[in-house]
Amino acid sequence: MTIVTADSTSYSLSFEVENEMRKESQRSASLEEEWNFTHKDVENDNVTRSNSIIMPKPKEPMHLTFNDVCTYVPAELQVPGIVNTVKKLAKACAKGDAGKVPERQILHSITGVVNPGEVVAIMGPSGSGKTTFISLLAGRNHLRTTGEILYNDQHKPTDKAFKRQLGYVSQEDVLFEGLTVFETLYYTAVLRLPRAMTNEDKRERVSIILEVLGIAHVKDSIVGGIRVGRRGISGGEKKRVAVGQELLYNPSVILLDEPTSGLDSTTSLNLIHTLHDLAQAGNRTIVTTIHQPSSRIYQMLDKLLLMGQGHLLFYGDASAATDYFATIGYTMPYGMNPADYFLDVASGWSGEAKDCGKLVVRDPQLKVLLGALAANPHRRPGDDLGHTMKNPKESEEEKLQGASYVTQMYVICVRSMKDRRFERFSVDALGTVFFMAVLCGILWWQKGVGANLATVTGASDVAALLFFLISFLSFNLLFTSIFTFPNEKTMLLKEREAGVYPISAFFFGRSAADVPLDTTIPICVTTIIYLMVGLKPDVVAFLLTMVVVLITCFTAASLGLLIGAACLNLKRAQSVATVVMLTLMLTGGFFVQNIPVWLSWIAYLSYIAYAWEGLIHIQLQGRIPECPATDDSCAMLTMGAVKFDTLGPQIGILLLMLVVFRAGVYLALRFGAKSR
Ligand SMILES: Nc1ncnc2c1ncn2[C@@H]1O[C@H](COP(=O)(O)OP(=O)(O)OP(=O)(O)O)[C@@H](O)[C@H]1O
After folding, report:
1. Ligand 1 midpoint to CA 469 (Å)
2. pLDDT at 403 over 50
3. How many CA atoms lie within 13 A of 267 on its CB side?
4. Please, what is the average pLDDT of the chain?
């Protein structure tokens, strides 16, 4: 389907024709209804003819009510860890208030109603509680909160099933830097739109969103960022992509935290204009925090929710705010932008202009203003609004929300591979491993041929090479893998909060995405070294070597993922990985044979030891000279073969470790990946 411009009168016709075609193709009735809107609808709605009107309408309008919302944070720094917890408890016991955490109130009794079709702007100075409040409306804040937030008088924002109907754009752009704009929106569409929709329709919806948000011209540009080391689309375009991700599944409620921050005034105006149109044309409920709107943006707002130090200073029609503040003694100076004036009032800067145009601090603690507000409260629109309680049953379509489990895994896998296409097979990454492979080949050139193995020195050279091969490959993979989950943590948390997929789908999809890298590089490196060093010229030995190397690499990668998933913090993950890796290498049997008894158990955890023993078994068993009883370095060579007579146990133990590490990754993600 072609995308039509808003000014074209032919768009209604083309949509009707499209709808007829949809009926013929027997798609679900509810989906058709969603798209079945005509030019007449638009005229009746009396809205500006911007691109927003080509968006389908959401299913159900939503009233939002928040009543007496109060939020508290711990008043003291909460440092995690056993020592700090014990110290804190001891201190509290000494004071006699054990169990009580001193708290600071950051939201004070915020009350109001937002109707469908309205754009409500939350304004206030920095630190006044805007982000805290909007994240509560989105069910994404886990601070202690009292009061009630309800949608249509029945849905709490934290209800898992309801979260899918809320669009939430956070202050930071959470996007995959390695994807293009189209890919970003398309994969979101596949994950979040009903599985009953065809792929073509999902693409079409993405195209509509691109048009609506004015980013169609950059659809094939990469998002870009520091991680991928490439400059991509601009900050404003990123913000619009983030908004587009939420608009895609057409929620009835859209909540945005500072969508205009970092945008120039015209781009901000365009974005608010689009939101305004989306609210009016689709009867959507839109709440946005906004820092310092221009007077033109301010005129476009339906309602203003003004906050100061966590208190609600004003909630009502944006156009009525100036008059109301004048009635309580806060008259706006002539010609001033109302938004600027209200921010001054909320910050305590509300006096008359003095010398040099400076303002005086009239009430830094807002006490006078709060007193005036209490004496003459503003009647908030909607306070007396009687809206009917609806009790809609979960429809068949809702049950089919989102992609199937297999599709979720597939999309997570493909999206992840594409996101890392610049890093994974980059010249730097490939250059490093192939340089090391060729260097090894040169240093150990033909050391593995039969004649060289006849001496203890020659055999120990090969044993050293096998140890280096296994350590180098697993070191490389382990340190690549620890970045995976810390890097994707914000995206994982965002999508988990929105209930886009279960953690197991992410786990399997993400694990599958690593398979190409975890296999291609080890296979190439091992083949280069095998041929250059002249290891056992036997197909079975070559294949067995490859099997041991690959299982070891998967095990190392799993250990890296486990460390990354358990820490979810890059610095800590790097420290832990260094300690673990060096310990496993040192106890692997190559450097030290006589490990103190009380430490000897660590040797049994060293996957490097099992892998090395396996390779020695394949390459050196029966090919090395008999060792004199007193020759320790010779005994070292046979060590791999003495533990087990066959190769099976080494492979079995490596596989067992692989399964245990992977299960650990799943559990770490399941119980550790939570927003705090
Ligand atoms: N998890 C938390 N722990 C401690 N203090 C918090 C927490 N969350 C919010 N606060 C405090 O609550 C107050 C309101 O913060 P919030 O981020 O909501 O303000 P804001 O109006 O969005 O500010 P800005 O415009 O600068 O983003 C601040 O004093 C902040 O320090």
Report:
1. 51
2. yes
3. 16
4. 78
Q: Which fold has domain 64-165+251-375?
A: Rossmann fold (3.40.50)
* pLDDT tens readout for residues 244-297: 998 888 888 999 999 888 778 888 888 888 888 888 877 889 999 998 888 889
Residues with CB under 6 A from ligand 1: 73, 106, 124, 126-132, 143
Nearest CA to ligand 1 atom 9: 132
Nearest CA to ligand 1 atom 5: 73
Which residues does 54 contact at the CB level (< 8 Å), separation at least 6? 3, 4, 6, 11, 15, 208, 211, 212
Q: Does the reported pTM lie above 0.80? A: no
Q: How many helices (H) and strands (E) does the chain have?
A: 27, 9
Q: Where are the alpha helices (DSSP H) in 621-647?
A: 632-643
Domain range list for the chain = 11-46, 64-165+251-375, 420-672
Task: Over range 464-484, report the average pLDDT.
Answer: 88
Ligand 1, from 132, 145, 287, 312: best to mutate by most atoms within 8 Å of Cβ? 132
CB 155 within 8 A of CB 391: no
Q: Is the pLDDT of residue 552 over 60?
A: yes
* Whether pLDDT at 176 is above 50: yes
Q: Ligand 1 mean position to 106 CA, how many Å?
A: 8
The answer to whether residue 474 scores a pLDDT higher than 70 is: yes
* Cβ proximity of 669 and 567 under 8 Å: no
What is the rounded CA–CA span in Å between residue 533 and residue 517?
A: 24
| Ligand 1 centroid – CA 492 distance (Å) | 23
